[in-house]
Amino acid sequence: MTDRQSRPRNPAPWHPAAPEREGLWMFARLRDFVDDIANTSPARLALTVFAAVCLMFTFILSLPVSSATGTATPLHQAMFTAVSAVCVTGLTVVSTAVHWSFFGQLVILIGIFVGGLGTLTLASLLALMVSKRLGVRGKLIAQEAMNNAGRLGEVGTLLRIVITTSVVIEGVLALALIPRFMTLGEPFWQSVWHGIFYAISSFNNAGFTPHSDGIVPYETDLWILVPLMLGVFLGSLGFPVVMVLQQNGLNWKKWNLHTKLTIQVSFILLFAGTVLWGLMEWDNIRTIGHMDLGDKITHSLFASVMTRSGGFNLVDQNHMESTTMLLTDALMFAGGGSASTAGGIKVTTIAVMFLAIVAEARGDADVKVYGRTIPQGAMRVAISVIVAGATLVSVSAFLLLQISGASLDRVLFETISAFATVGLSTNLSAELPPSGVYVLTALMFAGRVGTVTLAAGLALRQRSQLYHYPEERPIIG
After folding, report:
1. Contacts of 386 (CB under 8 A, 6+ apart)
2. Which phi and psi (to 5°) does residue 369 adopt?
3. What span, in angstroms and rounded, lies between the C-alpha atoms of 427 and 407?
4. Residues 6+ apart with CB under 8 A from 30
5. d(CA 231, CA 173)
6. Residue 169 to residues 111, 250, 341: CA-CA distances in angstroms?
7. b/e for 185-206, b at 16 or more Cβ within 10 A?
8. Do residues 340 and 235 lie in contact, with contact meaning Cβ atoms separated by under 8 Å?
9. CB 267 within 8 A of CB 339
10. How many CB atoms neighbour CB 20 within 10 A?
11. How does 396-420 read in b/e, with b if 16+ C-beta sit within 10 Å?
């Protein structure tokens, strides 16, 4: 054996891992983490994603560059604004037009667009972006987010349709608003900015305005009010309904049950809200009592549309009658359609509970409507959503009463507005100390993700039972 053969080969010199390999390793770990959560607990993934998005926007808004004065924004104000934007609420503790710079307003607008897609949609998109695929349970939760509007294999297509639909509708609204701002004397680029801002804010039911005095100066301008109402109403119907309308038009027979109930109950609440709000405020000099007939009808219709999640207002909420504030509380708590940009307990929840009451009154064993039977599981979910919503509002109202010392009507109005992500305000939010601001912040977050995630989780949660206990009916009522 020669010396060359017996000499061991020199080992290759050690080099630290390349940055690309480290990046790929970290990406792989992130992908595995997302995969694990998406397949074991999609609802937890939705909650995690939404919380991370809120924290990211909080950090950006707290930077000096986000404020008009170039100073850092206090944490409670930055967090409240970020959560209000991402949860498409519209409540503010500082003036959007005065406190925030253009960069800060742009961040708020992006937060509104991202948050308007919804918690479950964002979670599904994250899973798709990171792992390039969705597990079976991930697809189930995404399909639930779209209210079963399609087959399981079409989830990726449905998610793309959601984003495309949002962009198209917001683009049309912006094109309708920009010329009006120009005719009112605003410069071209400012008109473009305001048109885009109002388009995104209205369709996502956010209620943020880039003007310091809101839309009050345009209270008789139908060119601005009508697009805002259309945007809010379309956004409150929900993506599943919009997709059904795209596919089947106005053919009632081809609509699924969810679409029929959502549109029917939405129009009932819209009509009832318009009539009742108008009657209660008809002679109120502080709101619409001094206006002519046409303006009174416009204000009543606008208020009815906005109270169910839009958040834009033409009158001071503190100047309304007590009965009108109570009506507004009820409409805000009802909210809009499922899987929509609106909040509240949702109109289909109200429909299911009303139909269950009617069936019980008639002595029917099944809850039936439009030739379909509503399963018992759907009614249990509806009850859970209502009870969860009422509990969140009650606990938060109790805390705010202790913190602020304000009257019950103002506190209840503000808490329901925060829970239902409406954004109408008696200005209590801006008057609260930091502790009260954090309470409303948590309520907005819980109102946006809590009941939706609860409903989706309960809808997919099924435990097999090998036995049943004997039935015994307690005395009820």
Report:
1. 345, 349, 353
2. -160, 135
3. 13
4. 130
5. 7
6. 18, 18, 13
7. ebeeeebbbbbbbbbbbbbbbb
8. yes
9. no
10. 8
11. bbebbbebbebeeebbbbbbbbbbb
**pLDDT tens profile 21-39:** 555 666 566 566 655 655 5
- CA pair distance 39, 45, nearest whole angstrom: 9
- Across the range 123-130, mean pLDDT stands at 55
The Cα 260–Cα 73 span in angstroms is: 46
Name the residue type at position 356: A
The answer to whether residues 458 and 42 touch, using CB atoms and an 8 Å cutoff, is: no
Distance, in Å, from the CA atom of 208 to the CA atom of 85, rounded to the nearest integer, reads: 8
Among 97, 93, 311, 295, CA closest to 206: 311
- pLDDT tens track for 417-445: 999 999 999 999 999 999 999 999 999 99
DSSP-based helix, strand, coil % in the chain, nearest 5: 70, 0, 30
What is the DSSP code string of 93-137?
SS-HHHHB-HHHHHHHHHHHHHHHT-HHHHHHHHHHHHHSS--HH
What is the C-alpha to C-alpha distance for residues 437 and 309, in angstroms, rounded to an integer? 20
Angle at 157 between CA 151 and CA 161, to 5 degrees: 115
The model carries a pTM of 0.86
Structure tokens at 152: 């399981």
